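ERR on first pass: missing label on line 2. Operator R.T. fixed the label and resubmitted. Corrected input:
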Amino acid sequence: MSGDETRWLDPEEREAWLSYVAATTLLDGALDRQLQRDAGMPLAYYQILAMLSEVPNRTLRMSELAAITQSSQSRLSHAVARLERRGWVRRKPCSEDRRSTFAQLTEEGYAALAAAAPGHVGTVRRHLFDRLTPEQVGQLRDISRAVLSGLGVPGGDARDVLPG
Amino acid sequence: MSGDETRWLDPEEREAWLSYVAATTLLDGALDRQLQRDAGMPLAYYQILAMLSEVPNRTLRMSELAAITQSSQSRLSHAVARLERRGWVRRKPCSEDRRSTFAQLTEEGYAALAAAAPGHVGTVRRHLFDRLTPEQVGQLRDISRAVLSGLGVPGGDARDVLPG
DNA sequence: TCCAGGATGTTGAATGTTCAATCGCATGGT
DNA sequence: ACCATGCGATTGAACATTCAACATCCTGGA
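pass 2 clean. output:
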């Protein structure tokens, strides 16, 4: 608002930032390409299916699904529409609150997820966890949580990848 | 190739992974929205302008610019086309190798970048560095570099944000 | 010299995401 | 009971990215 008091990044921060940006961009791209190539879906869709797969009845309200996948409602709505066309997800109206819609993973959707999971997890492992020490895994978790707490997300947990 | 030997994520890895995915997704979204709102450009375009701004003559070959911004050539070509329409970047042919094209930051582009930089850096600081200890900044750099080394990127450096 | 193969860059179509507007429904206050 | 307000979800248009195909040019070897 008033004077020019921008605090620029110091050299340590700058290096960390550049490495971080490059690493996340490339990692994201690698995961996306692997899934697109081997399973015909982008990473965002895999995450939707994965979240649904781990929940009772494989069903969630659209708004809950949006929250758990860090997606806007609009984005999720478009995504579920496309997943529905592929037969991987089914919409069902909610009788208690008729504004709500349930999204349910179909059998075909579960099968597609189960087929995609090993390749996806393998890629995550190869590109990320195989290169980190156990200490670094903990550090990554703590750093991520610190960022989340600044974006209005409680330190709670969630689910992904596949059920046990 | 043979039996089902998928190594799933253990609980530590799983937690780290879920936190990481949520944090990067939300951080990316926050940075993108801030820039779009305050400067009318997505983060990817900011990074293109920032890289050009820190290089002699504010000029790079398209392929170099693609490499330094972790972008595919196609993506960069589309992006530069749009930046050119806005008057922020100019293309120039390369006489030594006529397959190549130079991309040069215009004065207007530099002005747009300079106007956008304080808000962008402020957002990075608020959402990321203000929440990390100095140790964690170093950890983040090391983790990112470990990932980069597994994706065919040398541990070298690069530039971003703005020149000094 | 000639040409095969690789490098550089662009293009169009298909796909995915964002933004703003909108619709129907629920809730709480009067 | 009424209605203002806000929530849940969807839609269409604009925007951005990916993928495959293409055009152009360089390079090295026969």
